[in-house]
Design brief:
Layout lengths: L2 E7 L5 E7 L3 H10 L3 E8 L9 H6 L5 H16 L4 H11 L3 H15 L4 H6 L7 H13 L2 H56 L7 H35 L2 H13 L3 H22 L4 H8 L6 H15 L4 H8 L4 H13 L2 H21 L1 H38 L1
Antiparallel strand pairs: 1-2, 1-3
Helix pairs in contact: 3-4, 3-8, 4-5, 7-8, 8-9, 8-11, 8-16, 8-17, 9-17, 10-11, 11-12, 11-16, 12-13, 13-14, 14-15, 15-16
C-alpha cells in the first residue's frame, strides 16, 4: 500500500505530523480521526526511512526490561477489562511509562495498528521486546475474543518467569562468589605474599623443601608474566562469550550448567517449572499441543532442554502421546511422568502441568534453602587444602631452620 505524509492537530490543539500507510488519502484520514487527530494536509509520500539511532543514542538508550513488559500486560488487561479501546489503552500506557525506549515501541505499535495490522502482528515487529510466546498468546486472544484474559494470564506467567529466573541466579550466585574469591586470594598471595617470603628465604642460603620451591617458582612465573596472563584471561573471556553466542556453544554451555554439582539440579528443576507453566498457559488458551510445544521451546532459556521439547513436538507430529514423548526426553522424574499420564487420560493436561510447575517450584525453593549447607563442606575442604599447601610451603623452611638452631644448642 502507498504511504501518505500528514499534518494535523491532536485533541489538545498541538500540531502533529508523520507518515502513514493506507489505500488512499481517505483511509489515512479515517485512521487519523480514530487516534484523535484532525487532518489538515495529506499528501502522497515515500516510505519512511528506518534509520537506526546513532552510536551515542544507542549507548544512552534505556533497555526495555522484563518488568516493563510484565506491567504492560497487567495494565492492558485492566484497561481492556474496563472497556477502553486498544488504541486508547496504548495511548494511555505510552504517556504513563517512564522508559523512553518502551514509549517509542508503543508509539510504533500504535502506528502499525493504524496501518491496518493486528495487534499480534504489530507486537511481532519488536522481537527484542515481545518474544514469540507473547506474540502467539496475543494472537490466540485476538482469534478467540478473549484478549483481556490472555493479557492477565501473560501477567501471571511473566511473574512466575521472573521468580524462577531469580531462583536460578540464586542457585549459582553463592558458589560462583566463593570460587571467584578463592581465585582472587590465590592471585594476591602469589603476587605479593610469596615474593616477600622468597626474599627472606634467599638469605638463608640453604636447600628449600620441594613444596616451597614449587610455590616460589609459580609465584615468580605469575610476577614475571602477569601482563601476558591477563591478556590470555581477557582473550579467554571474550572467546568464551563469542563461543556461547554460537548455536553449538550455547548448547554446550547449557548442558554444562545442568551438570554443575548440586546447583545443576536446581537449574534443571527451575527450567522445567518454566516449561510446564508455559505449556499449561498455551493449552489453556486453546493452542494445539504441537504448536504449543513449538512456541514453548523458545521460552525455557536453555538450548539443551529446548531441543528435548522440540523432540517431544516431533513425536506428537508422528502421532505419539505426550507421555511417550516425555519419557523419551529423559529429563522428567517418574512422579512427573505419572502426572502427565493422568492429565492426558483425563483431558486436564493443562491443570496437571500447572501442578507440575508448582511442584518444581516448591522443590527449587527447598533446594535453595539447603544449598549453603550442601556446598559448605565442599568449600571448606577446598579452602583447607589451599591453606595447607600455602602453610606448608611458606613455613616449612622456617620450621627446618628453627629445628636446626635448636639442634646446635
Amino acid at each position: 500500500m502507498p504511504f501518505f505524509a500528514y499534518k494535523g492537530r491532536d485533541d489538545r490543539g498541538q500540531l502533529v505530523q508523520g507518515v502513514l500507510e493506507g489505500a488512499d488519502s481517505g483511509t489515512v484520514a479515517g485512521q487519523l480521526f480514530t487516534i484523535g487527530v484532525t487532518p489538515l494536509e495529506i499528501t502522497p509520500s515515500s516510505a519512511p526511512r528506518q534509520s537506526g539511532p546513532g552510536l551515542l543514542q544507542r549507548l544512552g538508550e534505556q533497555t526495555v526490561t522484563h518488568l516493563d513488559v510484565l506491567m504492560f500486560s497487567r495494565q492492558m488487561y485492566t484497561l481492556l477489562k474496563a472497556g477502553v479501546p486498544i488504541m486508547g489503552a496504548l495511548k494511555g500506557l505510552q504517556e504513563s511509562t517512564d522508559n523512553q525506549t518502551f514509549r517509542r515501541v508503543i508509539q510504533e505499535i500504535r502506528e502499525s495498528l493504524d496501518s491496518g495490522r493486528e495487534l499480534s502482528a504489530s507486537l511481532a515487529r519488536h522481537p527484542k521486546v515481545f518474544d514469540s510466546f507473547f506474540v502467539n498468546m496475543v494472537r490466540v486472544g485476538e482469534h478467540t475474543g478473549k484478549l483481556e484474559e490472555v493479557f492477565l494470564r501473560l501477567f501471571h506467567h511473566m511473574e512466575f518467569e521472573k521468580f524462577m529466573r531469580e531462583q536460578v541466579k540464586s542457585a549459582v550466585r553463592y558458589p560462583s562468589f566463593v570460587v571467584a574469591t578463592m581465585a582472587i586470594a590465590i592471585v594476591i598471595i602469589n603476587l605479593f605474599v610469596v615474593p616477600a617470603f622468597a626474599k627472606v628465604y634467599a638469605g638463608f642460603k640453604t636447600e628449600l623443601p620441594a613444596l616451597t620451591k614449587a610455590l616460589i617458582a609459580f609465584s615468580d612465573f605469575m610476577v614475571t608474566y602477569w601482563p601476558a596472563l591477563l591478556a590470555v584471561l581477557l582473550v579467554l573471556v571474550f572467546g568464551f562469550r563469542f563461543y556461547v553466542n554460537t548455536v553449538q556453544g550455547q548448547l554446550a554451555w547449557d548442558q554444562f550448567k545442568l551438570r554443575i554439582p548440586i546447583a545443576g539440579k536446581i537449574v534443571l528443576k527451575a527450567t522445567l517449572a518454566r516449561f510446564a507453566r508455559s505449556f499449561a498457559l498455551a493449552i489453556e488458551s486453546g493452542v494445539p499441543a504441537v504448536q504449543a510445544l513449538t512456541v514453548v521451546a523458545h521460552t525455557v532459556d536453555n538450548e539443551h532442554v529446548a531441543r528435548k521439547i522440540a523432540a517431544m513436538r516431533d513425536g506428537l507430529e508422528r502421532g505419539e502421546s505426550v507421555l511417550r514423548t516425555a519419557v523419551a526426553t529423559g529429563i522428567f522424574t517418574p512422579i512427573v511422568l505419572q502426572m502427565v499420564a493422568v492429565g492426558e487420560e483425563s483431558g486436564a493436561l493443562d491443570d496437571l502441568m500447572k501442578e507440575i510447575a508448582d511442584m518444581y517450584q516448591r522443590e527449587v525453593e527447598y533446594d535453595l534453602k539447603n544449598l549453603a549447607s550442601q556446598i559448605e563442606p565442599i568449600l571448606i575442604v577446598a579452602l583447607g587444602v589451599l591453606v595447607l599447601i600455602l602453610a606448608l610451603g611458606v613455613f616449612l623452611p622456617i620450621w627446618d631452620l628453627g629445628t636446626a638452631a635448636l639442634g646446635k644448642k
